Amino acid sequence: MKAPDTHIEADYVKRINDVFQYIENNLHTDLSLEVVATVAHFSPYHFHRIFKTIVGETLNDYITRQRLERSAISLMHKEVLTIGELANEVGFSSNAVFTRAFKRHFGISPTQYRNQHFVFSKNGKAPSNLSKSVVEEGRYVRVMNQLKNWIDMNVKAEEKVMPAVTMAYITCMGIAEMESAFGRLMAWAGPKGLMDGENVRMATVYHDSFKTTEPEKVRMSASLIVDKEVEVSGEVSTVSRESEKCVVGRFEIGVDEFEQAWTGMFIWMNENGYTKAEGNPYEIYYNDYKEHPEQKFILDICIPVD
C-alpha cells in the first residue's frame, strides 16, 4: 500500500490494518461486508469503496483469496487434514463449493495440489502419494539433499521459545514496497527515541506466502520490536505476539539467498518432526546489510511450530 498523503488517509490505513488482522483471525466465520465494515467503523457503502481504493481488491475478492491461499498452505503442511475439514476451517459452506473455488484459483483440485506440493517428506524421500509423473524420485532426493547440505553449512537451526513482544509496524504489499515502508517506520520511530541504542531490532512478518500468493499481493509487516508502550498514529499500528515455540535459524546471507534459506528452514522443520503452527513466520534483523562488507543480512528466520 502506498504511503498515505493526508491524516485522513493515514487513519483509513490504520482501520484497514485492523480489518486485515480481523480477517486473518476469523477466516472460518461470517465475513460479510456488514460484519467487516463494523470492524473498520465505516458504513458498508463507504467501507467497500475505501477498501478497494487502498488494497486494490474488493473485500469479497480479498477474503476469497485469503481463504484459498490459507488452505493451500495447509495442504502443503498438514497431511492428515481432510479436504472437508479444510473447507470448514477456512470458511466455505461445503466441500463442493471449496473445491470449485480452489480449482478456479489454482487450476487444479485441492487433492492434486496436495499431491504436487506437500512440502517435504522425512529422510529426503518423495512423499508416497506422489506419482512418478509428478515428481521424479531421484531429482527430488538430489534437490532435498542439496538444500539440506546448504543448511548444514550455513545455519544453526534450533527450537526456541520466543518471548512475547510488541511490534510497531507498517503494512506493505509486495517486496517493492518494503524499503519505503521501513524508511517511513524509522522516520516515525526516530523522534521517539526508539532507534537509539545497540539493541534495535527490525523485523518482517509474513502474512502470506510467496509459494501461494502473487508476489505483488504478499502482505508483510515492516516491523520494529519495541520494549515499552508507544503511542502510534497514522499508518503505524502495533501488535502483540504471545510467547511461542519456534524453529529458529541464524543466517548471514545475500539478498538472492532468502528463498533458499526459507526453503531450507522448512525442510529442517520437517526433518526434525515439527509441524507448522498457525502463527505467521517472521525475520529478525541484526545488522544494516548496507554496512556489511559483502552486503549481507544477519538475521533469524523464525517459524512458529506445534
Protein model, in words:
The chain is α+β, with helices and mostly antiparallel strands. It has helices spanning 7-25, 33-40, 44-55, 59-77, 83-89, 95-106, 110-117, 137-154, 178-189, 258-271; strands spanning 156-162, 165-173, 202-206, 219-226, 237-241, 244-253, 282-285, 297-304. It has an eight-stranded antiparallel beta sheet. Helix 1 (7-25) crosses helix 2 (33-40), helix 5 (83-89) crosses helix 6 and helix 8 crosses helix 10. The two termini are 32 Å apart. The model is unreliable at 121-134 (pLDDT under 50).
Can you list the strand order of the major beta sheet? 1-6-8-7-3-4-2-5
Mean pLDDT over the full residue set = 89
β-sheet strand percentage: 15-25%
Count of alpha and pi helical runs: 10
Reported by name, the CATH topology of the largest domain is Multidrug-efflux Transporter 1 Regulator Bmrr, Chain A
SS content category: alpha+beta
Provide the number of structural domains: 2
CATH architecture of the largest domain: Alpha-Beta Barrel
> Span between N and C termini?
32 Å
Which of globular, elongated, flat, extended, rod-shaped describes the shape? globular
Q: Quick one: CATH superfamily of the largest domain?
A: Regulatory factor, effector binding domain
DSSP E strands, number: 8
* Share of residues in helices: 40-55%
Tell me the radius of gyration.
20 Å
The stretches of 5 or more residues where confidence is low (pLDDT under 50) are 121-134
How do the SSEs run, as a string of H and E? Answer: HHHHHHHHEEHEEEEHEE
For the largest beta-sheet, the strand count, sense and barrel status come to: 8 strands, antiparallel
Q: Can you identify the CATH class of the largest domain? A: Alpha Beta
